[in-house]
Amino acid sequence: MLCVLCGVCAGLFLPLLGQPETAHAAARGIIENRLGQASPDPATDAIIAEMGGGLRARWTRIVVDWRLAQPQEPPAGYDDAYLANLDAAISKLKAAGVRVILTALWVPKWASDRSLWSSPPPSFENGYQPFYAPDPDHVTDFGKLGGELAKRFAKYGVLYECWNEPNLYAYLYPQTRAGAPDFGLRTYLDMLKSFSRGIKAVQPKATVIAGANTPYGGNNALSTSPQRFAAYLKQHGGAKYFDAYSHHPYQVGGSKNLAPDKPPYNTRNSVTLYNLQQLLRVFPTKPFYLTEYGYCTRDTINGFIGVSEVRQASYLRKAYAMVARHRQVKALLWFLVKDSGPYDSPWGFFSGLSKYDGSRKLAWFAFAGGNRLSLIAPKTVRRAKQFSLTGKLSNRDGPVAGKNLLLLVRSASQTAWKTVAKTSTRSDGTYSFGRLSQQATRSYCVKWLAVTQSVTRKVLTP
After folding, report:
1. Is residue 6 one of the residues assigned to a domain?
2. Which helix (H) or strand (E) segment is 228 a member of?
3. Which one of 312, 335, 368 terminates a domain?
4. Which of 51, 83, 106, 110 is geometrically suited to a Cys-Cys bond with 73, CB 3.0 to 4.6 A?
């Protein structure tokens, strides 16, 4: 297939070389929701092997469901079977070289503030929901949960994250109440204090993480902006109760603002990778962990806009290049390893590096790294004489078959590359571009779009 490099594709040819010498490479992490479930997943060992092996991830995040960990009101104890399942997964992750952030989440029915049940958010009926704020009398029990986690998991060097997206009603409701505009903020700060005290009483040097905000908030009953959330914690002495801060810098703002380096439509109420500095300045001495991030390759029912697999891989590369500019950022965790459902599922989430059937997207290879694309070319050819360019695509696992490659060319007087041919790698990873000819000296390069590229080879024609 012959084509000319269009403007859209040109924007996706990101630099594929290493980071600048001054850059700080944040560790790569990845999340897989199949870990930490109520009962062991048969695929756990394979999942962990892929995370720590093929993908070479160094961090992950596991949700500890308070409802499952402590299904009955105290003085009833904790569910040992559920916590033992977590222990087994964390132990295997540590052996695979993957560090774990434990995120405590969801309010059990017995700990819920029942006064909230008759004022549900839109589309919900009256009654208990796990995102209702805890009863003030049970906030201390949340702290005791933190202590229990420290007792069981301190030996693995885990970090402890206080809640998930507490600035969003779907995880902590309500954000505001009549006469209490800071209801959600105050509730979270109380929870954080209790959680931190419970952990530190058992493990004084533990790392407690606060924040974990969604990137946008309207400062109403349904959501709070990340800027206001962080400012409230700082102004009310919350910084003494956490050692690191986390955020979920997903891009927001519709299809025109999807790239990581594009501004969100509302920079006053949003924090994405584009303006992450707004949060870093609030807590300049705290390490940051970006504990969720990703791009879906299909639209989702909850509003995520799908992009092509090429763009997903390109945006992944760009995101890690952007966080490398910030020494405060210690890790960026991609969400997810594998799509949570097939593309025809209305409730699927499609930010996985692999599809639901296990087939790898381009982003899988971009995340894993270790890709090598060779290019063999003659040093000299006569004018108008046909010649071939050959090479091989491989990664740490060996040859990579069935991948589309582009051949780019430019003359000695040109600075821009032009795509002139396309081919696919064979079963052994090799490829060939044949029947080429030239009238004058040209340079050639082969690219696996959004993942890697070959060196440039100059073919002389005297």
Report:
1. no
2. helix 226-235
3. 368
4. 110
Residues 272 and 287: their CA atoms lie apart, in Å, by 17
Q: How confident is the model at residue 273 (pLDDT cuts 50, 70, 90)?
A: very high
* 8 Å CB contact between 107 and 133: yes
Neighbours of 147 (CB within 10 A): 18
Q: How many structural domains compose the chain?
A: 2
Domain stops at, among 368, 387, 416: 368
For residue 116, give both structure tokens.
Answer: 């909230």
| Whether residue 394 sits in one domain with residue 326 | no
Write the DSSP string, 309-322. HHHHHHHHHHHHHH
Nearest alpha-carbon partner for 54 in 268, 358, 315, 289: 358
Global pTM reads: 0.92
Cα–Cα distance list, 30 to 163, 314, 335 (Å): 18, 17, 6
User: For residue 67, which amino acid is it?
Assistant: R
Nearest in space to 317 (alpha carbons), one of 442, 435, 447? 447
Same domain flag for 162 and 253: yes
Structure tokens at 160: 């402890």
CATH of the domain at 414: 2.60.40.730
pLDDT tens digits, residue range 61-101?
Answer: 999 999 999 999 999 999 999 999 999 999 999 999 999 99
The reported pLDDT for the residue numbered 41 is 86
Beta-strand (E) ranges in 256-346? Answer: 288-293, 329-335
* 411 shares a domain with 336: no
Q: How many CB atoms lie within 10 A of CB 72?
A: 11
For 84, list phi and psi in degrees, rounded to 5. Answer: -70, -35
Q: Which of 58, 60, 68 is nearest to 32 (CA)?
A: 60
DSSP string, 57-73: --EEEEEEEHHHH--S-
- Give the sign of the dihedral formed by CA 324, CA 330, CA 335, CA 338: positive
Q: Write the single-letter amino acid at 86.
A: L
Same domain, residue pair 269 and 412 = no
User: Which residues form the domain of 385?
Assistant: 372-459
In this prediction, residue 38 carries a pLDDT of 87
Q: Cβ contacts of residue 308 below 8 Å, gap of 6+?
A: 297
